[in-house]
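tokens incoming
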């Protein structure tokens, strides 16, 4: 349970510490038309220090959004195009032998960056996907007998295509649980799509300049952990997460046939951090239940495993999460 801080002081510190946020949002809007949910989720993950999985069909600006965010933050950025023939060493690095010095040395891979774009992550086999596990969870990489820390801040932003099945490898549960958020990127509206077509033909090239740096992000994450969250809101978070495992506990026994297993305790931690980030984006030093409810689908949808009965009855994880939200009493 969080000890209640001086809310006025904390709000003033958040306003000062997140002074870059309007410029960051405006910079994203210059390149990305619409997709407000995507942009907000990227900002949430950036502030909360959580990795993000973006899922959507090709052509919805997933990769472009990540590259734009990296361009607006003065930080190291690397892109890994996942393919079936990729090797773990292509991600984390390897040990090489120099004939000139007659010594082994570590050659670092592209994972050693502040922002790592894992493009089409489900096109690589499980061995390569698991190469990211240690990096994502412990922010370090072991190559040979040497363990090296990753830069701070460190953020993995992965994309995957849910449509194509040939040449793809579904992410294992241990991998998906490392992602704080799973964001479903949908098609733009008719007006937004018209603006996309028009902007593509514009002759003026958008020149993005960094609006903040890594130290500001680190400072924002320190402020995030000071954001006040009442014990009743924490209990609300825990009750939602536990209801995904045993829906009958909140009076939804008919949903148990659809759930193989629910969210882990890590989901509760991530939901608390993401809710704090949502409060900070709104300029508040405290969390309200709406902050939790607004981010629940992104935090839980990839952590609820469904049975064959759910597929047969056309019941999705979003359906189950929605019914749980409607049932759990809001504090």
């Amino acid at each position: 349970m969080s000890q209640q801080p001086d809310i006025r002081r904390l709000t003033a510190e958040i306003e000062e510490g997140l002074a870059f946020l309007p410029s960051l949002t405006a910079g994203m809007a210059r390149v990305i038309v619409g997709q407000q949910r995507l942009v907000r989720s990227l900002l949430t993950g950036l502030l909360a220090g959580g990795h993000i999985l973006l899922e959507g069909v090709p052509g919805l600006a997933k990769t472009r959004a990540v590259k734009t965010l990296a361009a607006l933050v003065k930080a190291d950025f690397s892109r890994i195009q996942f393919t079936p023939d990729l090797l773990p060493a292509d991600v984390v690095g390897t040990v090489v032998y120099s004939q000139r010095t007659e010594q082994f040395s570590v050659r670092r891979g592209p994972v050693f960056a502040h922002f790592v774009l894992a493009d089409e992550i489900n096109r690589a086999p499980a061995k390569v996907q698991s190469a990211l596990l240690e990096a994502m969870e412990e922010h370090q990489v072991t190559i040979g007998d040497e363990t090296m820390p990753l830069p701070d801040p460190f953020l993995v932003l992965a994309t995957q295509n849910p449509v194509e099945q040939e040449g793809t490898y579904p992410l294992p549960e241990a991998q998906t649980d490392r992602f704080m958020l799973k964001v479903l990127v949908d098609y733009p509206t008719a007006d937004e799509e018209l603006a996309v077509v028009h902007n593509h033909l514009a002759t003026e090239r958008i020149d993005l300049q960094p609006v903040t740096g890594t130290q500001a992000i680190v400072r924002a994450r320190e402020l995030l952990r000071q954001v006040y969250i009442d014990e009743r809101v924490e209990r609300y978070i825990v009750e939602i997460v536990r209801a995904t495992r045993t829906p009958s506990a909140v009076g939804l026994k008919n949903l148990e046939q659809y759930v193989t297993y629910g969210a882990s305790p890590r989901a509760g931690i991530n939901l608390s951090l993401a809710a704090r980030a949502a409060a900070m984006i709104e300029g508040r030093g405290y969390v309200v239940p709406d902050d939790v409810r607004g981010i629940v689908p992104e935090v839980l949808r990839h952590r609820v495993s469904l049975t064959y009965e759910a597929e047969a009855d056309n019941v999705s994880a979003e359906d189950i999460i929605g019914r749980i939200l409607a049932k759990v009493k809001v504090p």
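note: The first helix runs from residue 7 to 17.
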